[in-house]
Amino acid sequence: MQINTPDWVKHAVFYQIFPDRxxxxxxxxxxxxxxxxxxxxDEMPTLQGYKGxxxxxxxxxxxxxxxxxxxxxxxxxxxxxxxxxxxxxxDYYLVDPMLGGNSAFKELxxxxxxxxxxIVLDGVFNHASRGFFFFHDILENGPHSPWLDWFKIxxxxxxxxxxxxxxxxxxxxxxxxxxxxxxxxxxxxxxIMEIAEYWIKFGVDGWRLDVPFEIKAPGFWQEFRDxxxxxxxxxxxVGEVWGDSREWLDGTQFDGVMNYLFAAPTIAFTAGDRVDxxxxxxxxxxxxxxxxxxxYGEKIAQLLELYPWEIQLTQLNLLASHDTARLIxxxxxxxxxxxxxxxxxxxxxxxxxxxxxxxVGLPGKLDPxxxxxxxxxxxxxxxVLKYHQQLIRLRHKYSALRTGSYQILYAEGTVYxxxxxxxxxxxxxxxxxxxxxANASFxxxxxxxxxxxxxxxxxxxxxxNEGESNQLTLDLPPRSGCILG
Length: 485
Hints:
By secondary structure, the protein is of the alpha/beta class. The protein has 14 helices and 18 strands.
């Protein structure tokens, strides 16, 4: 079957924003909570405190994002909720008043679109919250509520808050704060479809779907795709699935998933035995045990075989998110691990995603620590910002880095080398993860132009052009990488 995915995603560099923590507006907009008791911005975040980031703050930072090379933003949830992460939705039609409400969001959408920056929202459609109008009605009216069949109520009395009693309804992951929808109910299904359509009509460019694998109702995601794409055929639908996602990536459901299958081996390769196991062990991706180049190459080759090429180009590739520790903290503070992983991320097919603050060296262990306030400029790691800007610029400049074929040229010991090829555009990316300098010499057959100019990083390059031979020799400093064009 013909698989169609949105073209713009293949050229996107996403920036993931956790709205409460990215930016508080400097201009006085808030009628509500003018003097709110926000948590101090630079203090360690807590599970329940708010720091008061808002959407006007994001508007004020659009120039910064544009300068970084960002052309798409993925927001974790922005709808009204009684939690700083907003995965406990109260009202799917109302942008949280703390963030500035629907009017601030409209302003942001227009300002972003003027700069050709796309906006993707988080769709939390598996569960709602205790404060969600329909569920709240059940809490007030018990068995008399007209909304009983919207949730999975198992008995009475429903105990939404008192942990001494059984909850008597299904909550996501056993959490009574997150009552699960009954997706078999056609009314519930229609309600969710209409929300999806409403915000696409409003102007958003796609949905990132929270725990979509939990929704088992037959045909649900197929209908979701049909209805979203009927409003905007170029809307991006990306699922949060951590493992093998073939059942959702058959062309009838999602355009891509959050590509933790790329993140895990890439971290295991670049950070190796520096990985702090406490930060990754109970997560659903496995950035361990350490990998050498050969094993890394095998894992990448398998991943590139897993899905159709059209889908590979619209995967959401990442190294960290609000659900993981930040890579600098996973790697025990080793900056080279992060730079090498970022080089591999921004030269890989699919959309790249930068988690807010990673580009200025923000650390953070597991949640809530990985959701810190974006640091003041005085605390930025400027060298980290610089290589992010350079790599993003190169990705935008060379279409081979976005949609070109990916060919592994050499994977031995600590050295991994691959080419990205699109027509006559050929680039070679080489990485040495070792703590000693490395030399690699090998035959290259598929390249016409023998790239030898260093576009990024450091290293010595020479081609032996005697006769028919295409021998490439690379000398790479320890813990370094380069791009040749």
